[in-house]
Amino acid sequence: MNNKLKPALLGGLIVGILSGLPFVSACCCIWAIGGGLVAGMLYIKSAPTQVLPGDGAIVGALSGIVGAVIYLLLGLPIAFLRGTADVEAQLARSGVRLPFQGTVLLLVGGLITAVALIVLATGGGLLSVPIFEKRKAGGPPAPPPPNMGGGPGSYAA
């Protein structure tokens, strides 16, 4: 698990910081998938054996979790400072009526975004395996053990 943690932390930094910053956060889906891809690539490069798609998904999910926590710690305070007036005005113009507004709107939106980051980073980690894993599954079959004699088919010297 430890060899998955370092790539997941780096991928999570990419996911969380770029998704939480204003102006670049509009592309948070790309940052989440990219963070999962980077985490998967780093894990594949450090793995001693062939990496399976499940391993890529795990390292991608871990990077998504790290990124979601960073997003919640970085992005929500920034959103609180910017206020909810812009979001509420856009919702009103589009005719969407929600049973909540203000701070609750930011919290619900933040949680939905955090879950989406985890799902997309998992997909990025899963996608990294067919892109970056070049080792073939299994090698040539092992030779059969030598017959130590005594049974049928053995050759006595």
What does this protein look like?
By secondary structure, this protein is an all-alpha fold. The protein has one domain. Helix content is 69%, strand content 0%. It has five helices and no strands. Helix 1 (2-20) packs parallel to helix 3 and helix 3 packs antiparallel against helix 5 (103-132). The longest helix is centred in the middle third of the chain and has 30 residues, at 53-82. The mean pLDDT is 86.
Give a brief description.
The protein has 157 residues and is mainly alpha-helical. It contains 5 helices and no strands. The protein has helices spanning 2-20, 28-46, 53-82, 85-94, 103-132.
Instruction: Give the count of helical stretches.
Output: 5
Number of domains: 1
Which percent bin holds the helix content? Answer: 55-70%
- Strand percentage: under 5%
Largest sheet: none
Run of helices and strands: HHHHH
Unreliable stretches (pLDDT < 50, length at least 5) are: none
What is the C-alpha radius of gyration, as a whole number of Å? 24 Å
Total DSSP E strands: 0
Any idea what the shape is? elongated
Q: What is the overall pLDDT average?
A: 86
Question: For the terminal residues, how far apart are their CA atoms?
Answer: 52 Å
Structural class: mainly alpha
